[in-house]
Specification:
The chain is α/β, with parallel strands linked by helices. It folds into 2 domains: 197 residues, NAD(P)-binding Rossmann-like Domain (Rossmann fold, 3-Layer(aba) Sandwich), CATH 3.40.50.720; 100 residues, UDP-galactose 4-epimerase, domain 1. It contains 10 helices and 15 strands. It has a 7-stranded parallel sheet, with helices on both faces. Strands 6-15-10-13 form a 4-stranded mixed sheet. The termini are far apart.
Amino acid sequence: MKVLVVGGAGYIGSHMVQDLLDAGHAPVTLDSLVTGHRDAVLGGVFVQGDLADRATLDNVFQTHEFDAVMHFASFIQVGESVRAPGMYYLNNFANTLNLLDAMARAGVKKFIFSSTAAIFGEPQSPVIDEQHPQQPINPYGASKQMVERALVDFERAHAIRYVCLRYFNAAGAHPNGLLGERHDPESHLVPLVLQVASGRRSHITVFGRDYETPDGSCIRDYVHVLDLCQAHRQALDWLMHDGASAAFNLGNGNGFSVLEVIRAAEKVTGQKLKMEEGPRRSGDPARLVADSQLIRRQLRWSPAYSDLETIVRHAWAWESKGLTPPQG
């Protein structure tokens, strides 16, 4: 199948392009390279362009006959979204409408969207399923929720069927060592911890040690980036076989605390990592874990890399190559 991968030069998108190539599909990457990296796209066709540019979108759809579109081109920094909400609503929501309009004009009817657990806001239960109330507490989560709502109307008006995959915490790197996480600035725990091990950071700060969890630190659900890609490919198969539009929570269903991640990194790297304690961050819930039973049942998805040490080991192989940009 020919698949347009929007944001295919980013962290998850680049792994998706490689996954599609490995599965024998024909990905076409569209990326503005504002946050992506051209050298992360290891095959297929690459087009540099922005979703704000309707002419570029129309040209891409006229040049290629796509079976489906996968959309990864969102800004993802929660704190930045609070400081600059307009940027997030413009890129994450308005530009997605441009993409959906271009799909409608071209008659492309299958869409897979990278959504987020941030649409739920403060968790009201220890494990979050698809029926959990959606009350996002920041513009990042709100912008994703708005896309999910718009997709209902685009299906009604243009017969575009969709799957929304609500990520919890993406982590890890490709086992081949050629792809990994390169956010600048970095905000994700696993790469931050490993940057301490590699000497690019002096310490890791643990924000809050007084949560109601076994060790007092926050618990999060970490899902390997290749397991995310597998979920996208199974969502593609679902849509190609006339599956109905759906939204799925995407996580391992297991939670690991900040201190457990640090201990796993120490075991993998063989180093004792310097920790400092900081105050709780506003909006950080004690526990955020996915109930992923629905996607396991309907799409027959099952994570291949659910072990925390495996996730950290793959990320460490990438960090050890020294390819990520320097941090302040």
